[in-house]
Design goal:
This protein is of the alpha+beta class and about 525 residues long. Among the domains are: about 80 residues, SH3 type barrels; about 80 residues, Alpha-Beta Plaits, CATH 3.30.70. About 55% of the residues lie in helices and about 15% in strands. The chain contains 15 helices and 15 strands. The strands form five sheets. Strands 11-10-9-8-12 form a five-stranded antiparallel β-sheet. Helix 1 packs parallel to helix 7, helix 4 packs antiparallel against helix 6 and helix 13 packs across helix 14. It is elongated and about 145 Å long.
């Protein structure tokens, strides 16, 4: 593609962008009911007004039809001006086209000046329309379209690469993103949204520009552009004295989304750079971070709405309606949100605690506004509603003091030496590194079982989340030491005692046994009958 073609393409793209921007920013500059537009192949030329005999629409349609016929004829175009009835009249190839009146003239100009301007516009527009119907023009535009598609595809690919570089840069700059990948998700989501909007906008602009190149599709391009602009700029909601369009609402939503992402980023930086260095516990860091995040979002939202020109008092009815909806339809959400605030302020559980709730056991990873995430020992994330932590019994192994005592019941045979068993159990406990020496391990003789002497080994640990691994290691060591000391671990036993005496049978049973013995002695195999009283 030559430099001239590139310059021409850039100029057309600039004109199209200016047209869209003009229509976007000035939706009120629409044609008034007393004016109608004259266009060639969808390209607007000028607007005409009503006269005493004809309406603006009738005049515009007649001029447009005559221009279209002249374009399709391919004849050389000549536009000149004559004075008829003291008014300038436009003639197209010596055919009457239009009489310019004072109502058609721009304020501050005369009909003669307006006629001269329109004559030049018509001359250039008809010649351009005839040129655009030539084979050479179609070949040139086909090459241009191919270049545009390749350029847009390259921009689409480069934007994806740019997004990856930005994400890598943010992950390096934000240490919390490496420690907790979930913390960078809001920022990544905002970046993905901006990338998708940018890509979509590039393709839409390219499609509108391509359709604007050809006479057949140019009218579609202008119609689609006008529909899009009017649909996005027309007011759709009115609050107080201000009316808001779709564009305003989208911009407001984008600003609020950016505010949420910014609050999350500030919170993550504060958690990793300030709270972490302050020496606070993980739970304390999380509480301060959550309160800071929601405070920034709430205050920032109020500031943005005030700057946007939205009267907060006008939202009273909406807030009341939402309150009724929360009271009836969103009870669970409101209950869980309130429970989340209680958990954050009262702190019965904190991030990093090892808890048991119902059948779930795991470490608290996150306390959100609606739910809490628990990471089980199988590294499975369980999402538990916050209200369950206030309505059910919860075992918190780390509450106020992470030191916890574990019970390991052990049974040995009756002929074993209890003192030897006590020594073995204490030796096994003291040899493990996760068992605290203060308080020291203890062994209790809990009683005489049906088949064994029952002992209970008590050990203390600061890592309750590893209690199952600790118990397994201790049982392995206890079994090994018991084998070395030849101390038997019994299995359940039951003794059955039979007394001698006289076995008495009922008359019916004796008769049945006698009959069975007769059949057996004869070699027969009798079948039981349905009328047998013992069936």
């Amino acid at each position: 593609m030559s430099l001239q073609q590139c310059t021409q393409a850039a100029g057309r793209i600039g004109v199209l962008l200016l047209l869209i921007l003009n229509l976007w920013l000035s939706p009120a500059i629409a044609q008034s009911p007393a004016q109608s537009t004259v266009a060639i192949d969808g390209r607007s030329l000028f607007q005409v007004s009503d006269t005493g005999q004809y309406t603006a629409e009738e005049r515009a349609s007649l001029v447009t039809l005559q221009l279209k016929e002249e374009v399709q004829s391919g004849n050389r175009v000549s536009v000149r001006i004559e004075q008829r009835n003291q008014s300038p009249t436009l003639l197209l190839n010596n055919r009457y086209l239009l009489t310019v009146t004072q109502a058609d003239a721009i304020p501050g100009s005369t009909p003669d000046e307006q006629a001269d301007i329109w004559a030049q516009q018509i001359q250039a527009a008809v010649q351009q329309a005839q040129l655009e119907r030539s084979a050479a023009y179609f070949q040139e535009m086909a090459l241009l379209v191919g270049g545009i598609v390749l350029t847009v595809a390259l921009l689409h690919w480069l934007l994806g690469k740019f997004k990856q570089r930005v994400l890598r840069f943010l992950r390096k700059r934000l240490p919390s993103a490496t420690e907790n990948p979930d913390s960078s998700r809001p920022l990544e989501g905002l970046l993905q949204l901006l990338l998708a909007i940018t890509r979509l906008g590039i393709w839409i602009i390219a499609a509108l520009y391509v359709t604007n190149l050809f006479p057949v599709t140019r009218s579609w391009s202008y119609q689609i552009t006008q529909v899009l602009v009017s649909s996005f700029t027309s007011p759709v909601i009115t609050l107080g004295r201000n009316a808001y369009s779709v564009t305003n609402l989208l911009l407001l939503a984008g600003v609020l989304a950016g505010l949420v992402a910014l609050a999350g980023t500030i919170t993550n930086v504060m958690r990793s750079r300030i709270l972490h260095l302050a020496g606070l516990s993980r739970g304390g860091q999380e509480i301060i971070a959550i309160l800071t995040k929601y405070s920034l979002i709430s205050i920032g939202t109020l500031i943005v709405l005030q700057i946007w020109g939205l009267d907060i008092s006008s939202l009273t009815i909406l807030v009341s309606a939402l309150g009724v909806g929360i009271g009836f339809g969103l009870q669970d959400i409101a209950k869980n949100f309130g429970s989340g605030l209680v958990l954050i302020l009262e702190r019965p559980i904190q991030v990093g605690d090892f808890v048991e709730i119902g059948s779930f056991k795991g470490t608290v990873e996150r306390i959100g506004g609606r739910s809490t995430e628990i990471r089980t020992l199988d590294h499975v994330s369980i999402i538990v509603p916050n209200s369950r932590f206030l309505s059910e019994e919860v075992i918190n192994w780390n509450h106020h003091n992470p030191v916890s005592r574990l019970h390991l019941p052990v049974g040995v045979a009756y002929h074993s030496d209890p003192q030897m068993v006590r020594t073995v159990l204490l030796e096994a406990a003291q040899s493990h590194t996760d068992v605290l020496q203060s308080p020291p391990p203890q062994v209790f003789f809990t009683g005489f079982g049906d088949s064994a002497l029952n002992f209970d080994l008590l050990v203390w640990t600061t890592q309750p989340s590893r209690q199952f691994i600790l118990k397994s290691d201790l049982y392995f060591r206890i079994f090994e030491l018991l084998q070395e000391r030849q101390i038997e671990i019994p299995f359940p036993q039951r003794d059955l005692h039979l007394r001698s005496g006289i076995l008495s049978l009922s008359p019916q049973t004796e008769a049945l046994l006698t009959q069975q013995s007769k059949y057996t002695s004869n070699g027969d195999s009798p079948s039981l009958r349905s009328n047998d009283p013992f069936i």
